Amino acid sequence: MHALNKNRPLRRIMLASAATVSGIVMLLALKPHTSPTVITDSVAQAPAPSSSASASPGATGGSGSSGSGKSGSSSTGTKTVTGDTVQTRWGPVQVKVTIKNGKITDVTALQYPSENPRDQQINDYALPQLRSEALAAQSASIDTVSGATYTSQGYQQSLQSALDSAGL
Predict the structure, then answer these.
(1) Mean pLDDT of all residues in the chain?
(2) 58, 140, 161, 166: least buried by Cβ within 10 Å?
(3) CA atoms of 34 and 103, how far apart (whole Å)
(4) Comparing C-alpha atoms, which of 130, 128, 135 is closest to residue 150?
(5) Burial class (CB within 10 angstroms; exposed 0-12, middle 13-18, buried 19+) of 154
């Protein structure tokens, strides 16, 4: 016998309802693809002065001279630059780069997606790999970490903006 037999109208109603609910669930679960965008408003630029302020205690100079010393010592000395905040599908990504004598000596993720345990698990795995890639490459030309594509793209863009700000 056929599944949609006219002698069993309740079965037809149940199958039609199940198909409708399944279709609606699939449509609601669909998320459009969005590429990472760079936030360049005053909110993203606000951390930049704080990073130069945090660099001033290490410089052992006055806070007024550390700002001018930071821009003048691009090939010698140590400076810390904060990259732009990049808004990804799963949340913002922002990095801070420490440069000594023209070489990248440290990369720290200031912001990254951490809304839920899955984000934390992915980024606990991805961020150390991205950091070591950046230190090895000495540029923002780093490989994307599998499973953390959006975070990797945001990391690369924020790193590139920090290196551009540093003049590298």
Answers:
(1) 74
(2) 58
(3) 33
(4) 130
(5) buried
Q: Among residues 145, 113, 147, 120, which one has the least CA distance to residue 132?
A: 145
The string of DSSP codes covering 55-73 is HHHHHTS-HHHHHHHHHH-
Burial of 89 (0-12, 13-18, 19+ CB in 10 A): middle
Single pTM value for the model: 0.56
Residue 76 has what pLDDT?
A: 63
- HSE at residue 18, side-chain half, CA atoms within 13 A, is 6
Count of positions (residues) in the chain = 168
Confidence band of 44 (pLDDT split at 50, 70, 90): very low
Q: What six digits make up the tokens of 111? A: 């912001």
